[in-house]
């Protein structure tokens, strides 16, 4: 009885032939398959943005305006956050002060984002110093377990007590050592009263097509292999911001790295904004390298905490969006097109 009931429900299968004409039909948009990028789960900082140093400018998180995490002291050093009357910039006011025992190698150490991968390649980096020092700084990649130096370079100091000075270096490696590696920046203390301040400490591996302030080669190649037709940026929730004032602000992420304050993102960690509007749209790193159509998302006037800008208060934000579009597409005779020409390229987006 049960078997006969089941058989009565059985579906009959029949062959179907579909003929598709080569003529007629409608044109389909070529923008059917693409990518969306958002700074979430360290997809930018610590991800496709190739910077290897975590918290390079001693910035904060949702609870604190600045932090040393994950920096630690190297050698018999004392380190603390410092707020000098002469900061590196108004955007990056916090530095780390380092002092220690005379004649000893002292400094700071950083584990990167879950380690720093050591490969046979050339790394490029820089750091800023405030304070008078005569001697060499040493930058090294060291085994996190043994402290063994895997590769290092000495950089002659040209620092002084009157202004911040930038020191650039090239670090060559001929070994493969995996991720269990720390970055260290050290010097030999000359005086017990000597204090040096450091800020914006950066280290990059070779980037995709060797772009300055660029992107990881492996991840960019993986994206390119997907053959996308468009790239939507800069995300959704992280564009909105959690609370009033925390939205993604295009005009704060278009200049030199020393002038980018960063912000606490919607996903509970600090965004350096080293990967900003210029890197997304103008420096050739995203849409030009991937050969995709750029899709720019604009802020819609609401925050994740439920705050909504009333209609009579939207004029400022509408103008801000128009300025952003002019920055990208206006020629150099326009106010914001001229800013783009000065910062990135004289050629507007088409």
From TrEMBL:
Matches recorded under InterPro entries: ASD1_cat, GH, Glycosyl_Hydrolase_51
Domain Alpha-L-arabinofuranosidase 1 catalytic: 223-348
Keyword Signal: yes
Transmembrane stretches, start-end: none
Signal peptide: 1-15
SUPFAM superfamilies from the UniProt entry: (Trans)glycosidases
Gene Ontology molecular-function annotations: alpha-L-arabinofuranosidase activity
Keywords assigned by UniProt, alphabetized: Signal
Listed name of the protein: Alpha-L-arabinofuranosidase 1 catalytic domain-containing protein
């Amino acid at each position: 009885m049960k078997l006969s009931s089941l058989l009565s429900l059985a579906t009959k299968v029949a062959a179907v032939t579909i003929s598709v004409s080569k003529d007629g039909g409608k044109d389909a948009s070529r923008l059917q398959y693409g990518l969306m990028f958002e700074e979430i789960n360290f997809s930018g900082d610590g991800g496709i943005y190739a910077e290897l140093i975590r918290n390079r400018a001693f910035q904060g998180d949702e609870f604190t305006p600045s932090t040393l995490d994950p920096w630690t002291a190297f050698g018999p050093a004392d380190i603390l956050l410092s707020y000098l009357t002469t900061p590196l910039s108004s955007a990056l006011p916090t530095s780390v002060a380092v002092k220690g025992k005379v004649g000893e190698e002292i400094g700071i150490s950083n584990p990167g984002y879950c380690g720093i991968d050591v490969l046979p390649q050339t790394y490029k980096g820089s750091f800023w110093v405030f304070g008078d020092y005569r001697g060499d700084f040493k930058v090294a990649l060291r085994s996190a377990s043994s402290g063994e130096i895997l590769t290092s370079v000495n950089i002659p100091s040209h620092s002084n007590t009157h202004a911040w000075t930038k020191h650039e270096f090239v670090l060559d490696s001929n070994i493969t050592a995996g991720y269990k590696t720390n970055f260290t920046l050290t010097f030999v203390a000359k005086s017990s009263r000597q204090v040096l301040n450091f800020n914006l400490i950066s280290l990059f591996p070779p980037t995709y097509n060797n772009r300055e302030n660029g992107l990881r080669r492996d991840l960019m190649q993986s994206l390119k292999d997907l053959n996308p037709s468009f790239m939507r940026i800069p995300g959704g929730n992280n564009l909105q911001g959690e609370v009033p004032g925390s939205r993604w602000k295009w005009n704060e992420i278009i200049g030199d790295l020393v002038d980018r304050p960063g912000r606490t993102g919607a996903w509970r960690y600090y965004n350096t904004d080293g990967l900003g509007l210029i890197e997304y749209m103008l420096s050739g790193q995203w849409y030009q390298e991937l050969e995709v159509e750029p899709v720019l998302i604009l802020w819609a006037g609401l925050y994740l905490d439920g705050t909504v800008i009333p209609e009579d208060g939207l004029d400022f934000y509408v103008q801000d969006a128009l300025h952003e579009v002019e920055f990208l597409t206006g020629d150099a005779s326009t106010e914001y097109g001229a800013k783009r020409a000065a910062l990135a390229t004289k050629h507007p987006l088409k």
